[in-house]
Amino acid sequence: MAEALRVGIAGLGTVGASVARVLAEKAAELTRQCGRDIIVSAVSARDASRDRGVDLSGAKWFDDPVDLACNADIDVFVELIGGEEGAARASVTAALEAGRHVVTANKALLSRHGVELAGIAEERGILLNYEAAVAGGIPVIKTMREAMAGNTVSRVFGILNGTCNYILTRMEAEGLSFEDCLKDAQRLGYAEADPTFDIEGNDTAHKLSILTSLAFGSRIAPDDIYLEGISNITQADIRAASELGYRIKLLGVAQRTETGIEQRVHPTMVPTASVIAQVHGVTNAVAIETDILGELLLSGPGAGGNATASAVIGDIADIAKSRPGFQHGPVFGRPAKELHPYVRARMRTHEGGYFIRLTVHDRAGVFAAVATRMAENEISLESIVQHANGANPETQKTVILVTHETTEAAVRRAVEGIVADGHLVDKPQVIRIERAG
Amino acid sequence: MAEALRVGIAGLGTVGASVARVLAEKAAELTRQCGRDIIVSAVSARDASRDRGVDLSGAKWFDDPVDLACNADIDVFVELIGGEEGAARASVTAALEAGRHVVTANKALLSRHGVELAGIAEERGILLNYEAAVAGGIPVIKTMREAMAGNTVSRVFGILNGTCNYILTRMEAEGLSFEDCLKDAQRLGYAEADPTFDIEGNDTAHKLSILTSLAFGSRIAPDDIYLEGISNITQADIRAASELGYRIKLLGVAQRTETGIEQRVHPTMVPTASVIAQVHGVTNAVAIETDILGELLLSGPGAGGNATASAVIGDIADIAKSRPGFQHGPVFGRPAKELHPYVRARMRTHEGGYFIRLTVHDRAGVFAAVATRMAENEISLESIVQHANGANPETQKTVILVTHETTEAAVRRAVEGIVADGHLVDKPQVIRIERAG
């Protein structure tokens, strides 16, 4: 049998401890699958004394992950520290430069420095694996990087944040407010004390930026993403969506258009009968559309110590099955130096259907004024419904419009016009509709 | 750049022609992804003169695929002939023995001879890739063989036959009979002139037997599968399922139980709100449940020239990225000689919920007699409903029972008892209910 693969783990939180435990518990099976033993020979974390439910006495302890990355007797450096700078970036860079394979679950690091790190890995002929960085246990990186070779992707979209999907699922199922669901999510550990990063879409954007690069062969562009969170989604939206045959999900979408690549994260209406609409709670899902394969959808646990550990171990096993001298496929599907610059399609050129919910003063001519603004901007309507179900049904009405395919620019102009007309009681709500199979 | 990877394709039907065309059209992109050119250097098919919409003039023609496998200047032999014996088996065996990597889409061949062929490949240190053999374009082999390393699978199940799913989808959507939907499927090319192999579940069984081996590390056992097709599913079943919150799908299910491994293919009721219930038409889906990752679901096109070609090309690209001397992971996840014998769990020990539809004579005591037979066999009922919607509502009634979790043996005894009681007008219908998320 080949020599054992020596693994160094930096970061022993939930995921790190889970990786170490599974590697120990499944050692015999992993050896059978990989043709060699996988052993944890070095670890690093903040607190050496903490009990993590796994025996790490056989591993050498390092206080400093960079020291581990450079000086430990390891073949693979597993980075589970987190953060786009600091110890994570320094140790991953050091490991790659020392010629060690790297496995990381760090979406922030890759989103910011992935192309640079990929360049180092490819120059050294070593692997940089990161299945756990996007959609937890779902093997979307392997699918896009390996299984879809030769496919030209037209669109990739997904539910990439379990916190948001948990909140939206409970809002719909139980009729609760966003605030109440968020509080419950925090109590259950599905949301952070400061939930901004999740609920405003930043976490989804990090993950999306990596998928975009894999899909389109472009350099990662985490700052060129249109971003809208879920904090202004109300029961009125959820109910109206349901009546119209839609469900609201926070999607990350990357799409090739005539003017460039659209990257957007926003609440989205998807048809209730679509597969992705059935993805509930903290589950994640990714759909990929290509010219040859067609449409593929993967759904599964997007977070959690074990699911994330499973992806990390899959990455380690792939390295264990490889041997020195093996020339690997490029980190982001195409060689880092051949990734082309990201060309951003402006959001104003986005084409699609729109849901528009307006709370208007109940007076003559309002309905006509709204319809006129739509017509002026050449927006044709699939449906227009007037409800008397507002807070003050005697003086206010709710108008719900669903448009046929139009452009973001037209919708913005129309809504600005409606606001200027002075008929609105409240801020208008605009939610994009996404095709989904 | 490394030397070009030379591919020989045996079989130039829809899939073979599509593989050759995509390799030509996406040559530059594939070279970027794989770090070397991929060229079709040899082909074999029955008719050399046929126009296949792709220029094969650069490839050497072989009349005999075995001759191609042994004597062509190739690195990879792509078998797209089909069939479990004959030219397919002979040429794949010859290619492996000549030390050539093999890519095949042939589920029948693998189902019957996969372990033997894997043994040859592993001895020679070469690859036998077969992503296209199960669920067409869905990367389920790569997911189970690579991404799920270290996971212990408890159950794998899926919609593995597009013909059956197309028929069941149309029956539900349009209220048509099985026979009418089958005729349409034949007209549209979704079903063969002799549809037995698809509609009686044999095709699903072939694919399931391969997934079972990957899931449980057991030798492939295509003959130890409980088999029931969809030809006796009626509108009465579809409607009753819908009223109860279920949808009927032909599933292949492999499951670890206390007494062994269950492999079964049968019409199944899955909750309408589950993800797999939204998989419509010719689309396939596979769900995998494991101890570490949790539950993963993949859905996508299960057949068609392009989708199948995409899987074949992914397999070829994986070989192109590897280099001589590379030691690959085993063909079925564990080395062929370490796959343990398949231990069959008898169908009688299967545990689950059951749907039972009875057409009974409308006379006093029938309802009580049915309930008594259930009670005798310790089957507790979730619901029991009597309908007057039979063909002869004045003399007949329909009784629909849904059981709580029970055993196949108990249900069979109860139904035999009901039949013996002489109250039935028609054959009883029994459909198993499957948990699905």
UniProtKB/TrEMBL annotation, chains A, B:
GO terms for molecular function: homoserine dehydrogenase activity; NADP binding. Coiled coil: none annotated. One of its GO terms (biological process) is methionine biosynthetic process. Its EC number is 1.1.1.3. It holds the Pfam family NAD_binding_3. The active site is at K207. Pathway: Amino-acid biosynthesis; L-methionine biosynthesis via de novo pathway; L-homoserine from L-aspartate: step 3/3; Amino-acid biosynthesis; L-threonine biosynthesis; L-threonine from L-aspartate: step 3/5. NADPH binds at K107. Keywords: Amino-acid biosynthesis, Methionine biosynthesis, NADP, Oxidoreductase, Threonine biosynthesis. InterPro entries: ACT-like_dom_sf (IPR045865), ACT_dom (IPR002912), Asp/hSer_DH_NAD-bd (IPR005106), HDH (IPR016204), HDH_cat (IPR001342), HDH_CS (IPR019811), NAD(P)-bd_dom_sf (IPR036291). Residues 355-437 form the ACT domain. L-homoserine binds at E192. NADP(+) binds at A10, G11, L12, G13, T14, V15, G16, A17. Belongs to the homoserine dehydrogenase family. This is Homoserine dehydrogenase. It comes from Aquamicrobium lusatiense.
